[in-house]
Amino acid sequence: PLTLRGLEQARAHAETLRGLRGLEWRLHTSPLFRARQTAAIIAETLELPPDRQFESILLAECDLGKFEGLTDAEVRERHPGALEARKRSKWSYVFPGGESYADVHLRMQRWLGEGRGETPAIVVTHGIASRALRGAYLGLEPDAILALDNHDQSRIYRLEGGRIEVVDG
Q: Which residue blocks in the chain are alpha helix, DSSP H?
């Protein structure tokens, strides 16, 4: 679940978005629990009806497979050489039992390709997924996507007219 800090950030984001009233928002969220918690706070604050709220597995975070929940030290102990292999090929490295940045990027391209990025939308997702979504939106190559800033939960990004700006944070 969200930490107290995460709850505070979600409420602050909801208030920032409330300040942009007048838009006919559609709220899209990852099905993962913390994203759904954040989306629920935003939906309540903006009084969004259920028919303008959507959940998509395409917006889920990168599946870390066997690395899920492990610290780097635990990964080094249980999977010797894996972190080094990932550093050598961050874009295409597939987490054992999971997926790669490239896989997440393809999901984001698919999500955007389904026309969901064309109407005013709030998208609640995760760090790697956010980077991949922003890169897909801009049509960037893998190295440029990996060079994008890591999505800090204190930020809201506005994707509009082929540009990205930080709204909050």
A: 4-18, 33-46, 72-78, 82-88, 101-111, 127-138, 142-147
